[in-house]
Design a protein that fits this description.
It is built from ten helices and no strands. By secondary structure, the protein is mostly helical. Helix 2 crosses helix 3 (68-99) and helix 2 crosses helix 7.
């Protein structure tokens, strides 16, 4: 794919090319709609591309920034409308199975409402995938990512071109990785975080940090796998917390809150959310332990 002595712009191009291929691979599955993983994996591929934009910034050639970030954001949003409802329908099934003896009768109005919303979201997705905006996104990405990059656009404060060696992966990546780590750790200055909303930003930064490590996995030390495993554990905690908040917000938006069964589910989610908030510090300190910090340092030390 790429090596430690390649330039950061070229590594970025190859990473984006890889994620574009994943996006296109899962597009037919997303269109068909029989396997919800199609939409999920297509959306994740786009999210990973967006994460690379945030991680590499101006290291990417200027033409990469001409409209593409907005197009990717829009694509992720359209897919996200379907994905969120896919997940919500799964949560309904799980709640019915575990709490209602597998009897969906009391939540039938909510199920029917959600399926109508899901049908609309899927129709919007197909219209988008068939439309000009998505085709333009795919065609522009294909044209850009098939062309090797240069370092001509990277200049020092005196506006003179930098030597290609100053933008090698092994020279720049330590700052990129630790920059992501810094953005995550800086939230400690706001601890204790006793509200679910305040943990949402940590979840986003956690995901971006993981995406960066996974994208540059080929040139990092083997200990990066242990760091990624640690991040995933924290993400799972934060993901459950986000799911509870999402379910409650959705229930409140449906105008079905007067139904007793809906109120009971909302109350259960609120209780679960509070437990997750209270146990978050333990999950956080496991992630920021000496062992994880050492593994991150060893992963970067090979560069």
């Amino acid at each position: 794919m790429f090596g430690a002595t390649d330039t950061i712009p070229e590594a970025g191009r190859l990473i984006l090319q890889h994620y574009m291929a994943q996006m296109l691979t899962h597009e037919p599955i997303a269109r068909l709609g029989e396997d919800i993983e199609g939409v999920h994996k297509m959306r994740v591929a786009i999210r990973r591309m967006r994460s690379m934009y945030k991680a590499l910034g101006d290291y990417l050639p200027p033409q990469y920034h001409d409209g593409l970030p907005d197009w990717l954001r829009h694509a992720a949003a359209v897919l996200g409308q379907v994905r969120d409802l896919d997940v919500f329908l799964e949560w309904i099934d799980q709640y019915i199975f575990t709490e209602l003896d597998n009897n969906p009768e009391s939540l039938q109005p909510l199920i029917e409402y959600t399926r109508r919303q899901h049908a609309t979201a899927r129709a919007n997705l197909i219209a988008y995938l068939d439309g000009n905006l998505y085709r333009e996104l795919v065609n522009t990405l294909a044209t850009l990512l098939d062309t090797p990059t240069t370092t001509d656009h990277i200049q020092d404060p005196r506006s003179s071109p930098l030597s290609p060696k100053t933008v090698q992966v092994n020279h720049v990546l330590p700052n990129v990785v630790y920059g992501r780590y810094q953005r995550l750790r800086r939230h400690e200055s706001r601890f204790p975080l006793d509200e679910a909303e305040k943990l949402h930003r940590i979840r986003i930064e956690c995901k971006r940090f993981r995406y960066t490590l996974e994208a540059f996995r080929p040139v990092l030390g083997v200990s990066v796998e242990r760091v990624i495993t640690s991040i995933k554990a924290l993400q799972e905690h934060l993901g459950d917390l986000n799911d509870m908040a999402t379910i409650m917000a959705y229930l409140e938006s449906t105008e079905l809150m007067e139904h007793e069964a809906v109120q009971a589910w909302h109350a259960a989610c609120l209780a679960r959310q509070q437990t997750l908030v209270e146990t978050f510090p333990n999950a956080w300190y496991q992630f920021t332990s000496y062992t994880t910090r050492r593994d991150l340092a060893l992963a970067v030390a090979v560069l």
